[in-house]
Amino acid sequence: MSNALEHQVGGDHYKKLAIQPVELIVNLHLDYFDGNIVKYVTRHRFKNGKEDIKKAIHYCELAIYYSKYKNPIGTKFSFTTTAKLVDKYAEKNYLTLQERNAIYYACTDSYKLAIETLNKIIKEYEQ
Q1: Tens digits of residue pLDDT in 37-76
Q2: Cβ within 8 Å of residue 85, ≥6 positions away
Q3: Structure pTM?
Q4: Cα separation of 40 and 57, whole Å?
Q5: CA angle, 41 then 46 then 48, to 5°
Q6: Cα Rg, the chain, nearest whole Å
């Protein structure tokens, strides 16, 4: 069986990355909402532009809405470990500081900060 990361259905926007979103998602044990935020923030420049940033914002809003159902103990990593993994991911994939910060905020459940940061990226599309 071939390496699943070498195969992509519907484009090549993930295959050309040094670290694919799924790898960060698995390494940080991210939930559905955070995983989608990582995916959309990472691919917006290669696929759907502003629409992908809007999708990332929507997943932040969904995460806030459904946060009452989260396990209070959780399996989140420390802020330091999360920062290190997100920094490596951002560096290897040439993400901007805003993209990096949006992903970090989502991975640490700081969704309002993630939304603020993502809205700044939307404003860049509108200029």
Answers
A1: 999 999 999 899 999 999 999 999 999 998 876 655 555 6
A2: 24, 27, 28, 77
A3: 0.82
A4: 9
A5: 70
A6: 14
